[in-house]
Structures are given as C-alpha cells and as structure tokens.
Specification:
By secondary structure, this protein is of the alpha+beta class. It has a seven-stranded mixed β-sheet, with helices on one face. Strand 5 and strand 6 form a beta hairpin. The protein is elongated, with a radius of gyration of 24 Å.
Length: 164
C-alpha cells in the first residue's frame, strides 16, 4: 500500500518554456570618494541655484518625472512643479548641503545628507538644520539627475512670514 501512495504523489513532469532568465540585478555598493565627489558637485550646483532663487537652475537637476516629498506638504511631481516649489521658500541668507553617504546600484545612486538653511527674520539670522535622501538616475549622456528627493527639518522651522 505504501508503494501505491508514493507513486500517486510523484511530481508531474514540468514543461520547458522559452521564458528568458530574469536579468541580473546590479549589486548595491558604497560609493568611492570620487563618486561621492561627483554626486556632491550636483548637490553644490543645486545649492547655488536654490540660494539664488533660480527655478530654472534647480529644476534642471531633476528628471522630468521626478518627485519631491517635502516636510508638512503634499508630494510635488514633475520638473516644472518642483522648480516652482523651490521658489516658495523665503529668501535665503545661506544654504549648504553635504552628502554623508552614497550607494550605487548600476545607473541608480542613493545619497544621504544634511543641510543648513539660514533666513533673516527681523534682522536676525535664523539657522535651520535638515536631513535628506535622494535617488538619482544616470542619464544616457552620463550625467546624473535627481529622481526622488525627501527632506525634513531637525526641529520646527521658525515663522519666516516677517523675513526681510
């Protein structure tokens, strides 16, 4: 009887198909110092445009279908909408952003960093600290553009409605 049960439970023959093997996924690895410097140059370019209130310069660093997830605001999608978002900040007296870590996975980069924003309120400089994470995509021409960006502040941002 045991032989009958064992035969009855034998696996069915598997048909071979022409399904291609899935592509191997790139392995994530830490960025080298040179790769971090390349990504920091993009961050520095953003800082210059943001500090100047230059929507075209900041927007040009994002993919057409990019998304930004700002603190206490709805997600903003699309290069033009993102450019407009960065013009809504009060005039900045200072802005610096530094990448602390980055990983690469093929043509995708993930960066993590901190930023310092300075605005002048009633004649006093008010400094806010923030952190961010970005996903960047390598373009066909070898340049990198920001695909996703999320940022938030370390403490509540002071009221800048009286900013000079």
């Amino acid at each position: 009887m045991a032989a009958v049960i064992a035969v009855g439970c034998a696996p069915a023959a598997v048909e071979e198909t022409d399904t291609p093997e899935p592509e191997a996924q790139p392995t994530a690895r830490a960025m080298t110092a040179d790769e971090l410097a390349e990504q920091q140059a993009i961050t520095d370019e953003f800082a210059v445009g943001f500090l100047a209130g230059d929507a075209d310069a900041t927007g040009a660093l994002f993919t057409e279908d990019a998304a930004v997830l700002p603190q206490d605001m709805p997600m903003v999608s699309g290069r033009d909408e993102i450019a407009a978002l960065f013009t809504q900040f009060p005039p900045l007296a200072g802005f610096e952003a530094t990448i602390h870590e980055g990983i690469l996975m093929g043509d995708t980069a993930v960066t993590r960093g901190t930023a310092t924003l300075t605005v002048t309120v009633e004649g006093e400089d008010v400094v806010s600290h923030a952190k961010y994470m970005e996903v960047r995509e390598k373009q066909e021409d070898g340049s990198w553009l920001i695909k996703w960006d999320i940022f938030n502040y370390d403490a509540p941002v002071p009221d800048t409605s009286e900013a000079e």
